[in-house]
Write a structure and sequence with these properties.
Blueprint: E1 3-8, H1 15-30, E2 34-39, E3 51-54, H2 59-67, E4 72-73, H3 76-82, H4 85-92, E5 102-104, H5 118-127, E6 131-135, E7 144-147, H6 150-159, E8 165-169, E9 177-184, E10 187-195, E11 209-212, H7 217-229, E12 234-243, E13 249-257, H8 263-269, H9 273-293
Parallel strand pairs: 1-2, 1-3, 3-4
Antiparallel strand pairs: 5-8, 6-7, 6-8, 9-10, 9-12, 10-11, 12-13
Helix pairs in contact: 2-3
The structure holds adenosine-5'-diphosphate (ADP) and magnesium ion.
Adenosine-5'-diphosphate binds next to strand 6, strand 8, strand 12 and strand 13.
């Protein structure tokens, strides 16, 4: 019997994480796979399994398991690229993927802070106000800020000095709304539009409402290309609509999630990503085993 381990984070458990776990366990059971949940603080010494679903950002644990020859989904390196939006931007900026104009802030140290603002002078000319500021590491919109002016930007940047940070053009055309495409393997399995009337961030966590959405061919192209370039087996790709000089609506990529929550997506589209991810993993490890035997 095929055995798998679902790694979740020991210190972050909620109704949503439990709901996703249950969908994974059910999808495995339905396919005769023995899947066990293990928190990332468990003892993995001597653990034997056919695959690991790293439903967490503990890339060090993931890398350790990979070193033992265990197939880990998503790959820890890909998760690391997604878990820092500055690294995601660098990986995707020259790959034919439309992105909002972005400036990566210079590295400083928490004790020193930003002692001069030359980079912000340049960014201000390029991006204007208001300006989006993002911490490299963040989720649920919690580490995404909208600075209305220079004073606010300096205050935010100073308070986060030492973290990876980026500055980005605010896409005012779509304030409070975005699209989430869910990629598994080489397919977009489902998508939703998210809208928040009370905030510039569309995240469900912050009150965004979700609607089933049928992506355009260009949106699918961007999502599949981004997931592929980052080496992801599955991904939640966030896109936003901008308007080009000719007045046409064009999608831009905002971020790629290696462990995208799927409870709301499941509810509004009826598509169960846990089933697609499980089947994808089984087909990949089936293929790898065949290659080893052959
Ligand atoms: N450049 C931008 N212009 C307008 N809105 C943005 C921009 N970047 C992010 N947002 C809004 O903020 C939300 C959160 O940003 P995102 O980059 O997806 O980070 P998170 O990891 O927190 O979800 C997006 O879903 C979108 O609604
Ligand atoms: Mg997002």
């Amino acid at each position: 019997m095929t055995r798998g381990i679902l790694i979740t984070n020991a210190y972050w458990q909620s109704d949503t994480t439990r709901a996703m776990r249950d969908l994974f366990l059910q999808a495995a059971r339905d396919r005769g796979v023995q899947l066990a949940e293990m928190p990332n603080d468990a003892d993995f010494t001597g653990i034997e399994t056919d695959f690991v679903i790293l439903w967490d950002k503990d890339v060090r644990l993931g890398a350790m398991l990979e070193k033992r020859g265990i197939p880990v989904f998503n790959s820890p390196l890909s998760i690391a690229l997604c878990d820092d939006k500055t690294l995601t931007h660098l990986a995707l900026m020259d790959q034919g993927i439309p992105l909002p104009e972005t400036v990566i802030c210079p590295q400083t140290f928490p004790v020193n802070g930003y002692r001069r603002w030359d980079f912000l002078d340049r960014a201000e000319k390029l991006l204007g106000w208001p300006m989006i500021i993002k911490e490299g590491r963040g989720s649920f919109g919690l580490q995404v800020y909208l600075a209305k002016d220079r004073a606010e930007a300096e205050r935010i940047l100073q308070s986060k000095a030492g973290e990876p940070l980026l500055l980005q053009r605010f896409i005012s055309f779509s304030s409070g709304s975005d699209k989430r495409l869910y990629v598994v393997g080489d397919r977009v399995i489902a998508a939703m539009r998210r809208v928040n009337d009370n905030d510039f961030r569309a995240n469900i966590f912050g009150g965004g409402r979700a609607f089933a959405y049928t992506p355009t061919a260009e949106e699918e192209r961007i999502a599949l290309l981004a997931a592929g370039k980052l080496g992801l087996s599955f991904a939640g790709v966030d896109l936003i609509d901008d308007r080009d000089a000719g007045g046409n609506t064009v999608p831009l990529l905002l971020e790629v999630n290696s462990n995208a929550q799927f409870v709301a997506l499941h509810e509004v589209t009826g598509v169960n990503p846990a089933v697609h991810m499980t089947e994808h993993i089984l087909s990949v490890i089936g293929r790898e085993q065949k290659q080893k035997n052959g």
